Amino acid sequence: MKKITFLLGLLITSPFFAQTPCSGGTANGFPCEGYDLQSKFVLAEMGASDGNDSWGWTDPDDGTEYALVGLDNGTAFINISDPINPIYLGKLPTHTNPSIWRDIKVYNNHAFIVSEANGHGLQVFDLTRLRNVASPPETFTEDAHLGVFGSAHNIAINEDSGYAYVVGTDEANGGPLFINIQNPLSPFMIGDYDGSGYTHDAQIIIYDGPDSDYTGKEIFFGSNANEVVIVDVTDKLNPQLISTITYGNTSYTHQGWLTEDRNYLLVGDEIDEQDFGFNTRTIVFDVSDLDNPSFHFDYFSNIASTDHNGYVVGNTFYLASYSGGMRVINISDIANQNMNEIGYFDTYPANNNANYRGSWNVYPFFVSGNIVISGEGGFTLVKESNLGINDNENFNFSMAPNPATENITITSKVAPIQSIEIYSVLGQKVMDKVVPQNVTQTINISTLKTGMYLVTINKNTTLRLVVN
After folding, report:
1. Rounded CA gap, 275 and 425, in Å?
2. CA 263, CA 244: separation in Å to the nearest integer?
3. Count of CB atoms within 10 A of residue 144's CB?
4. Could you tell me if 39 and 84 are in contact, meaning their C-beta atoms sit under 8 angstroms apart?
5. Which tens digits make up the pLDDT trace of 135-151?
6. 434 touches 403 (CB < 8 A)
């Protein structure tokens, strides 16, 4: 949600943003801590007046990374294989009219795009077309379109089931529409759920958490403006509400993301900072029992900015926090109600007030460690300071080869390896190994589909893996 937009005049020439380390608390004029500026495109360079969502795609053939950036008038595609010199490949124009709301997700090498523009429906774009762009920037055309709905606020995809969940539409009271995208170029709607009203955003997984009653079920975690809903959507023709979660000082339940162990759900309420005057708040719920979820605690930032979209990678929570930019939060001790900020990159230096200027979204799932920040500032690419070219090596573990097809070998430099878990970028656990306590362990990954995965070692270290 973005209640107010401030349209900037198009710049005749854009400022030059070179790779700049975070030094003395800034990088090329942007406040920062622990994250360096790689590169940036302002909105005018992409022919737009406003920016919004973002996502990413890693080409399974060669590991090339692409940023997908939502704009008021379409979707931009950027090759970031050279993160210091990214290439703006071009734009897929909006299906109907411009809108400040656009959302993008990826499945099976295709982008799926919705917007609140009237009559927009679902655009489908074949991302493999980005491999051979002769004369960038190009104006692209959509490869498929589904028009069973018009406007929509958001789209979430469960890559493990091949279903897209379109939410905030002009159908089903704004509840999720269930779209089969297993053949990306022939999407079709199979059902919907309107039992809890309007859904603003959602995460959907094949459940692999601690509540054994729902193991293997497809579970929908929806942020529904004034509450969180948990719904069993395994049967698309007969979805079942499991439970709802309410909390104090509610203004607008906006978006949530699960921890990788599925014990906790981190939720942002978009308007509470403005309505109640406290600093940026993340509400943490204990969802280890899906039938009886409970409030765990509130985490408050040290600034007052409005929170928007947040995602979990291992023990780190990456939060797009509008005027506060990207905030990076350690959640390794979340069970004991402890979270602490460990870094940030602020794309809106003017202030950290509770408003809608600055960063709309952050995409932290690339294997390279590059992180996309999108919003009013256009496209910004950052990376953790002093992170090596290959972040599959850190102080304690290394992993090779990467990309990989058949096997990976993980080597510990300190403690023995006890467990290895592999997750999809949307948090679905696809492999769980309890291993002999050796310093080297080889894992067969031949059963994994092509794409990007997160490998968590000993419950405390997460590395990124590309499977060819």
Report:
1. 34
2. 16
3. 17
4. yes
5. 999 999 999 999 999 99
6. no
